[in-house]
């Protein structure tokens, strides 16, 4: 790609959650539900002296993608690290549930989830965890009818209970700048020690949990550059492909087989992980 093409390219990562949703939806079809003017924010943060955000860090946008009805659920990584509380997670779960109900009524509504999140909001603890569990159930319900596509682009990454939600999606799209993991680097270092995982070693972190490595190991389905048009094209292509023969979470036996080949007594390397996971995951 030459310099002129690079300058013409629109960064997807630099867009906020609302503009990412607008970019993915067909032009002129964006309509936001429970927007900031509705003032549906967390009832718990203010009690702890934390400034709230009017949309609680989640954008729910309806419109169409490739001419068919769709909902895009964007997580704002700039608010509380994209963490999920009772309200923000309920907005996502409720939207997915309504999309599934649409399909049962003959309306082929699809869903895209923009993962920019550290997981559960610690200030809301069990309430957030319960709502994230509802997201998991809603994804599994909807994907019976239509593909559910997850996108993790950066800079926050996708961690915690929401990384499980990403794993439940029919397809997962990632950029090179993305990170995906159940536990974040700081948490791993805190629990296992710096010799196990140095949270300051950025090259090492991306070599294990970055978007490119996750694609090489089969944990991400589509690897794209930081180009808003390329991300939209990837979403359309995955929707046109339809439901995969087996979603990632339906291939448990294959993943367990690969995990059994890892020797926990030895320090893993990115290359070793690729060699093992590259063998594939049968159902």
From TrEMBL:
<dbReference type="Pfam" id="PF01039">
    <property type="entry name" value="Carboxyl_trans"/>
</dbReference>
<feature type="domain" description="CoA carboxyltransferase N-terminal">
    <location>
        <begin position="1"/>
        <end position="254"/>
    </location>
</feature>
<protein>
    <submittedName>
        <fullName>Biotin-independent malonate decarboxylase subunit beta</fullName>
    </submittedName>
</protein>
<dbReference type="InterPro" id="IPR029045">
    <property type="entry name" value="ClpP/crotonase-like_dom_sf"/>
</dbReference>
<dbReference type="InterPro" id="IPR034733">
    <property type="entry name" value="AcCoA_carboxyl_beta"/>
</dbReference>
<dbReference type="GO" id="GO:0006633">
    <property type="term" value="P:fatty acid biosynthetic process"/>
</dbReference>
<dbReference type="GO" id="GO:0005975">
    <property type="term" value="P:carbohydrate metabolic process"/>
</dbReference>
<dbReference type="GO" id="GO:0016740">
    <property type="term" value="F:transferase activity"/>
</dbReference>
<dbReference type="InterPro" id="IPR017556">
    <property type="entry name" value="Malonate_beta"/>
</dbReference>
<keyword id="KW-0808">Transferase</keyword>
<dbReference type="GO" id="GO:0003989">
    <property type="term" value="F:acetyl-CoA carboxylase activity"/>
</dbReference>
<dbReference type="GO" id="GO:2001295">
    <property type="term" value="P:malonyl-CoA biosynthetic process"/>
</dbReference>
<dbReference type="InterPro" id="IPR011762">
    <property type="entry name" value="COA_CT_N"/>
</dbReference>
<dbReference type="GO" id="GO:0016831">
    <property type="term" value="F:carboxy-lyase activity"/>
</dbReference>
